[in-house]
């Protein structure tokens, strides 16, 4: 028993460690970084399967496409341009200014257009419309709601609708919408 004294001394210490562990952590002092999503639109031709966002494809939909949102018209920016006008670069992770962008997805090279970026806050039933320049349009509605629980932990609820039909959520991976024209 003389050699076992350290085991008896460790027992209260081990019990104190288990009692001290708690799931009641308060996240109030945390700094949170959120993804600022855009709605990404991939458009293919129903008959040929051609990528209609590719500027080299005859009959593409991007030549005169624009977005109408909150009473303002957003023309499609040229491929690779992310700012409508030159802006000062910072190391902050603010959302890019809202714009209608044209880009290529790597590594597969598929073209797409996107509208956003939206910082999570309280977007409920937010709607914009994409006019394709061929007399057709697509209405996109979305929710992007940021709520905090009693421990100051964030919860994001999102969903996207295309012409009134749910396209699901996808906050972490981007809101991808596949259209066939």
The backbone outline, from C-alpha atoms, is: elongated
Gap between N and C termini, in Å? 84 Å
| Strand line-up of the largest beta sheet | 3-2-6-7-8-9
Give the ordered list of helices and strands: HEEEEEEEEEE
Number of DSSP strand runs = 10
Q: Total number of helical segments?
A: 1
Structural class: mainly beta
Approximate strand percentage: 35-45%
Overview in brief:
The chain is mostly beta strands.
Please give a structural write-up.
The chain is mainly beta and 181 residues long. Helix content is 9%, strand content 39%. The relative contact order is 0.20. Strand 8 and strand 9 form a beta hairpin. The longest helix has 16 residues, at 5-20. The termini are far apart.
Which features characterize this protein?
mainly beta, six-stranded antiparallel sheet, four-stranded mixed sheet, 9% helix, 39% strand
Write the layout of secondary structure elements.
Elements lengths: L4 H16 L17 E7 L21 E4 L2 E4 L23 E7 L4 E7 L5 E10 L5 E12 L5 E9 L2 E4 L6 E6 L1
Parallel strand pairs: 1-10
Antiparallel strand pairs: 1-5, 2-3, 2-6, 4-5, 6-7, 7-8, 8-9
